[in-house]
TrEMBL record, chains A, B:
Listed Pfam families: HGTP_anticodon, tRNA-synt_2b, tRNA_edit
Keywords (A to Z) from UniProt: Aminoacyl-tRNA synthetase, ATP-binding, Cytoplasm, Ligase, Nucleotide-binding, Protein biosynthesis
Entry function: Catalyzes the attachment of proline to tRNA(Pro) in a two-step reaction: proline is first activated by ATP to form Pro-AMP and then transferred to the acceptor end of tRNA(Pro). As ProRS can inadvertently accommodate and process non-cognate amino acids such as alanine and cysteine, to avoid such errors it has two additional distinct editing activities against alanine. One activity is designated as 'pretransfer' editing and involves the tRNA(Pro)-independent hydrolysis of activated Ala-AMP.
UniProt name for this protein: Proline--tRNA ligase
Keyword Ion transport included in the entry's annotation: no
UniProt comment concerning the protein's domains: Consists of three domains: the N-terminal catalytic domain, the editing domain and the C-terminal anticodon-binding domain.
Enzyme Commission number(s) of this protein: 6.1.1.15
Enzyme class: ligase
Organism domain of life: Bacteria
Amino acid sequence: MKQSQIFIPTLKEIPSDAEAKSHQLMLRGGFIRQVSAGIYAYLPLAVRVLHNIEQIVREEMEQIDAIEMLAPAILPGELWQESGRYATYGDNLFKLKDRHERNFILGPTHEETLTYLIRDQLNSYKKMPKILYQIQAKYRDEDRPRYGLLRGREFIMKDGYSFSANQAQLDDAFNKMEQAYTNIFNRCALDYRVILGDSGDMGGNASKEFSAVAEIGEDTIVYSDSSDYAANLEMAQSIIQPNPQETAQPLQTVATPHTPTVESVAAFLKVTPKQVIKSRAYVVDEQPVLVLIRGDSEVNETKLKNVLNAQQDVQMATDEQVESMFHSVAGFMGPFDLPETVKIVADSSLKGLCNGVTGANQKDLHWQNVNLERDLHLSDQDFVDVRTVQPGELSPDHQGSLQFTRGIEIGHIFKLGTRYSETLKATFLDENGRQQPVIMGSYGIGISRLLSAIVEQHCDDAGIIWPWQLAPYQVHVVIINTKDEDQVQLASEVEASLQNAGFSVLVDDRSERPGVKFAEADLIGSPVRITVGKKASDKILEIKLRNQTDSVEVNENDLIDSMKILLKNY
Amino acid sequence: MKQSQIFIPTLKEIPSDAEAKSHQLMLRGGFIRQVSAGIYAYLPLAVRVLHNIEQIVREEMEQIDAIEMLAPAILPGELWQESGRYATYGDNLFKLKDRHERNFILGPTHEETLTYLIRDQLNSYKKMPKILYQIQAKYRDEDRPRYGLLRGREFIMKDGYSFSANQAQLDDAFNKMEQAYTNIFNRCALDYRVILGDSGDMGGNASKEFSAVAEIGEDTIVYSDSSDYAANLEMAQSIIQPNPQETAQPLQTVATPHTPTVESVAAFLKVTPKQVIKSRAYVVDEQPVLVLIRGDSEVNETKLKNVLNAQQDVQMATDEQVESMFHSVAGFMGPFDLPETVKIVADSSLKGLCNGVTGANQKDLHWQNVNLERDLHLSDQDFVDVRTVQPGELSPDHQGSLQFTRGIEIGHIFKLGTRYSETLKATFLDENGRQQPVIMGSYGIGISRLLSAIVEQHCDDAGIIWPWQLAPYQVHVVIINTKDEDQVQLASEVEASLQNAGFSVLVDDRSERPGVKFAEADLIGSPVRITVGKKASDKILEIKLRNQTDSVEVNENDLIDSMKILLKNY
């Protein structure tokens, strides 16, 4: 491809509103252009990368017998009313009416549509398992679209759905899909973690998330420095325990003037904050809940909600609620002498804690020598994990210590179960002739978002450094002087022999200055740059890898062999 | 691919609401499913055909250096307000608002978007010509979606746009695109005509339409039986002339009681209807226009509108308007003694007509021996073509006679000129440093509609007969008894050797009755069916082409060679 023919509108300046590296580089490199907030056009270079990614996805889907189809993007509102998500999905759902005032949405995901399409068709256990997938534009009316393709309002997804007659088939589909995703992200040269996900409003009961490591990422990933363990911060398990125990002393109150914080009471009583049992008042589904947790730790509200099977998000109690519902006072709360309506939840970090300190529900008064098992009659099972883990602590698999990083969600796999088949009435007859709801799984990859994640991980100050298998063009041939016939002729021969060898080639045939051409080649990020300059009359070329600073000169005849050797270092 | 794994939900009954053959067959064959009126899911077999078509399109676009990109489908309303089409496109435009109440549309076509993307970029004649294209879902809120994929509300288009610095570059892009489209439709095995199109609301000044011959088509195509001439009925040129002339007689009135029709006055005066000069009263942009045309012919209102450069569609005058604006009476209108405000338009079929008959603008009165040139002082140039051609008459290129057929619009190429670059202010500096609007072309193919057009032309009562290069699977291997290990084993060997030979293969491994399998194989329409039955133990197979009734038996070892010979007849 000649650079004069393709459309690569590079920018010289860093766009002021682009915060993410990948966003800046894809704008500067002429890969994408914004058409409206969070809505982008993929220009020719980006389309070539998308196609490379899609090709990898299709190959890996074929490996696990997943079958490609293509549902519409505009969907009747009734389908989403049937599932209940028309109301619950909220403002993120693009809604519209047709000329006859019928409700439609633009699909952010297709559980309803696929369930609709298979119902009455996958009506026997003999017709399952099946896995269907599609690659398609999806829509989410994000409140604050940002970071280019990372949080857009129109984006490309690979979404897949499995249909099973029993749990074993679902597990099998889920495991196959996990393997396929692993292969896909490896082939995309991504550094990622497989983490236990929160299934959010997909309605499932088990999920894993694939998260690409990147500072710009919106999620905090917790992972072990010595094992495969990884989880979202909201899900990472806490296993810290108190230190070796002292001898239990009698419970007693103690006056503690001006000590409304963990630090102040610990200092006053000359104990460590770990000895302080912090009390946090919550209102959960309108009921008062007191959460006890180690003084140096924080309550994880997602864990708390899950532990309590709460319908609504949990809310911290206001000072008024502390007084009216807990009969206590902020800064001096504790688990003793509370109204019977208050439920007490103790974090497992307190299990076995000896001679702790808690508030006494009166200003400037605490209890000393608290032993929860003894004083509140708690058994081991009463302690639950509602604590947010901290960097450096022991990994829950007891291998290594936990590290924190930021991540971009690039894939998510869910065991949906019968959430959609029950509401949308997709049933089948099992081996015994009984009608059962189809058991489903749902599997997504953010194809356009992958572009951003890959660029975040593969770039330097000068531009993008494409992984070989994803590059829009693998080789960028730069002609120094397009008026020199020797150079033009040699470039043409080089292009032909590279293409014969199976490489994709972009030839910079423009009459720009060499400095401009080199800078744009670095920006665009082809793995290999071949410069055709003054030595063209001697058939000498210069080869440079994008990820290295040195270049080598080779004769035209040695080009392909030299490239194969050099590429081992790419 | 095993048939037990793919998803092909065939239907036994003809869907009652499907009128078109292609719609019926694609529903029955499990290719498509309706999700809402005019909105379809492409099931796995259809996606494979779509991909085959898209591959052909991409190859032919690459041949003419057209570059692929991908614009968003959801577009800001402001862009369409800038071009003026937000208001003029009418109810066919899907409109919606985002959560911040900003206006968006779902793109039915992308002239505005592409103009927006290239403006400020293609800012010099040196950066042109360029051709960009995309393959993407498009949206039209049709009032009456019908015929399956033929008139849908979400459909897949290849839309391309050329950007040129001068007319010669536009002509070149247009001609290249016409050649590419010809190649594409030939490779899709379509019987089509290239016709002079009406550019409709695209705002262009020259266009050609590619129309696939099919009874279900919504357009009437006129074509010569002896040349390449073809046109839409609205555009087909009329060149009929009066027969050799008599001697002109003096103009005179004649009483003609009860003769308000051409037939009745011709009978009464003992002339042929061709001698009668029929007068038709129109109101064009609020002005009265009398159209004179040969008695056996009809006025073509599209031609009339074009001839008069009318802003609005032309309207037949009502009886009241005939009286008030023309001072005449229905059934007896004529060109003499009219108010001066009435414009007279004479069709070229009347040029040289000798001794014709016209109404005299009074009940039961006509003029005889009318010679328009003499009596109305008309010269040759005053005669214009406003007549609808009729089957059997001379083709305008004087080669052969005109035939009528119905057609499906499958492609359309437009010379847009500066319609969009002027309104959206996309300008460039020409060789002389002068700012000029970019000269554009627009080129569309209805990819999903092609599916329907191909099926309309390639089917029989039993089902679809796919062209070889488009078939979802080229070979359908049917195992008669899946419990017979010899058969299963042989089918597996056959599948492997066919795939090695480069064929796509579907293996019917289901435990259905042979009759069901054969019927579904015919319905799905793979070009070749290979039956593995009782003679499997002797490695004998049966090969049958979908478009023939006979089958042949071959040994497994001769399979590939036999297929190559047989396929010459496909």
